[in-house]
Amino acid sequence: MNSIVSVERRAALALVTIDNPPVNALSARVRAGLLETFAGLTADPGVQGVLIACRGRTFAAGADISEFGAVPPPTFRELFATIESFPRPVLVALHGTALGAGVELALACHYRCANRDARLGLPELTLGLIPGAGGTQRLPRLVGAKAALEMILSAAPIGAGAALELGLIDRVIEGDLLPAALACLEELVATRAGPRPTRARAVDARGFDPDFVTKSLAGAAKRMRGQEAPRWAADAISAAVQLPFDDGLRKEGEIAHHSEFSAESKALRHLFFAERAVSRVPGLGDNVVARPINRVGVIGAGTMGGGIAVAFADAGIGVQLVESAPELLERGLARIRATIESSMTRGRITREQAQERIGSIEGSLDLERLASADLIVEAVFEDLALKKRIFRDLGRIARRDAVLASNTSTLDLNEIADESGRPQDVVGLHFFSPANVMRLLEIVRGAKTAPEILTTAIAVGKKLRKVGVVVGVCYGFAGNRMMMEGYLREADQLLLEGATPEQVDRVIESFGFAMGPFVMSDMAGNDVGFKARETVGIRAQRPAPYHEVTDELARLGKLGQKSGSGFYRYEAGDRTPHPDPDVTALTERLARKFGVQRRSAIPDDEVALRCVYPLINEGARILEEGIVARASDLDVIWTTGYGFPRFRGGPMFYADATGLSDVYAQIVRLHSLHEHYWEPAPLLRRLAEQNSSFAAWDAVKAKRD
Ligand code: COA
Ligand code: NAD
Asked: Residues 57-109: pLDDT tens digits?
């Protein structure tokens, strides 16, 4: 027997323990250990009942995700069939987060108990998979087909109480799990309850009709945009309803195999590990300890400052919010109250929680009030002189051990940091709007940021439950730079060449983005990018035309939704975009001005390629400059902050999946047509010529770092 599965005799009972930290993933070694254990227990007539439990912080949180694509023997099916057909009762005791194959293991046992805090879930769809180790066949036999589909499509865990109500478990244990579970097993043996194989049960198919399935899939499509796995799961559950167990299991096996090798699952598995890799920052040793952050100062109660204050309040951290004038402070606080109250109205938090959060944000007009803060986040206008002045003051006011952060999107963080006189204490915390909702946080490492400050910023990101990606200083950092120097620049150029905002948005949305670039610009305000280009003087440094349509709209006051027109026209009080003939007239005029040849039709394929490929090219430059540690960080940034389709894994993964030599060839071709902007990034060229990939580049770099 291997050391990660152990067995202990307690009189006539056997306690089988899995110990595979950190999350007891059911890897091949665990499966082999369990099989071997059950072979031994079957042969031992003295064993009257078996209890399966896990050591450590959680029951098995699933299959070992890194095995997918080449799952080594023994199979889950073989293991679960062995457990299910064991001739004496098998009870499982769940704690922590029993997920995926962990729950499927429980389904294959004869009886299930869990402690009160346990959570059970089937998150496979988030990885583009279905519960393919019997889950889609056994779950409906316990909870009915309708509840099974709901649970699988939601992908979210449920509590032990809800699991008991559904019939997924038999008992909730209030005290110490193991002794109580052993007592349960003793009782089962004493009452001669015997084995109770799930496979032998009938499926309750009430309510599982085509209408229910269609509605459920429509709901899932909103949450899992562009994914096919929800449909696969519904097909597998239909098989459970229609077929005998073994035939259903066979059908599930075919679907599971297909899902495991699908492009969607490969992409989503990549993102699972990519989101966890971001916290491994080269040059930051484990011995660097984060400072405690209990009291935060936020400067500026505008769109971002307000959202940032709410994000901290949501995480239970008190905020001192500083504005420049009483009416602006009052307006900011009113918006904050409205945001928190709307979470309450939507049932996300209770009235008491809302009151507590509102009460934890205190307004002030006096920067000196920040003297006691552990962390100060500046979110005033994007104005270098203003930010410099504030950091000069903060250098004096803030405690010696305080962390000073700026939320600037486009300004040079190093210049701002130097002004404080203590640049080692300064870091960028680039939140995304709305800051209390968006998962992405770019953590900007300045030239002089101290390791301890960076570590603290990463810990703050985790506390806020955000995905914090460390980036270096450059114009727009990683995400906005790829957007402005690639994606939006090219979308704008396509309008000059004769595309319409409607076409570009339609193509990008059907590629899988949450929103097309022009609907997004109209929502964010066309003045935002315009002002940034003006302030930093970027337009003067770039060959024309460069964001000319957007900037002309901004000059004309066509700022988007907030002014009633932009790339689209809006009716009062309505956010529906309507095509605007004025925009076509404007693009025709600008095309003449800049000598751009217009075409009567631009193929959709070209639109998609010209918006997406510059992300890859600029991404490659960012990588080579060391602005981010790995290509997968850019995938995380674009899928969590910019609506890039998760089922495509992010721009760099998408490039790898397409093949870098193809991507490179297209960029070379575009460069021959548009010489200013499509110069292939040297890293992309090298990798393409070596027939390599960004993933391979990441792997080599990880070894070096
Ligand atoms: N397979 C392989 N590795 C896994 C894993 C799995 N099923 N679940 C977690 N891990 C790894 C993570 O990659 C991470 O490794 P790292 O420290 O080297 O980066 C480590 O375990 C801890 O996971 P993390 O997510 O950082 O911990 P957490 O406490 O925040 O969350 C879970 C714990 C179990 C809730 C979360 O890891 C999770 O949801 N796991 C996936 C569950 C899943 O999808 N299961 C279905 C698979 S069929
Ligand atoms: P905003 O105009 O909505 O808010 C800025 C606030 O700062 C205003 O309320 C203003 O009164 C206040 N302010 C100005 N001077 C001040 C001072 N001396 N002391 C205290 N408060 C002062 O702007 P915003 O959109 O919230 O942007 C703020 C910062 O966040 C900018 O640096 C911007 O680049 C960055 N940012 C914005 C977004 C976004 O989507 N809006 C996203 C990421 C980062």
From this structure: 999 999 999 999 999 999 999 999 999 999 999 999 999 999 999 999 999 99
Report d(CA 430, CA 450) in Å as an integer: 18
Cβ count within 10 A of residue 273: 11
Q: 299, 390 in Cβ contact below 8 A? A: yes
Note if 104 is an active site residue. Answer: yes
Give the predicted TM-score (pTM) of the model.
Answer: 0.94
Please name which of 51, 175, 55, 162 lies closest in space to residue 109, comparing C-alpha atoms: 51
Direct distance between the N- and C-terminal alpha carbons of the chain, in angstroms, rounded to an integer: 37
Fill in the DSSP letter of residue 487.
I
> 150 and 144 in contact (C-beta within 8 Å)?
no
Burial class (CB in 10 A: 0-12, 13-18, 19+), 571: exposed
Active site residue 625: no
Q: Whose CA is nearest to atom 40 of ligand 2?
A: 433
Which residue is catalytic, options 104, 252, 275, 378?
104
Between the CA of 556 and the centroid of ligand 1 the distance, in Å, is 51
Give the CB-side neighbour count of residue 156, counting CA atoms within 13 A: 8
- Contact in structure between 101 and 63 (CB atoms under 8 Å): yes
Phi, psi of 681 (to 5 degrees): -65, 135
Which atom of ligand 1 lies at the shortest distance from residue 66's CA? 2
Our answer on whether the CB atom of 304 is closer than 6 Å to any ligand 2 atom is yes
Q: Which amino acid is at 329?
A: L
DSSP 424: G
Mean pLDDT (whole number) for 382-394: 97
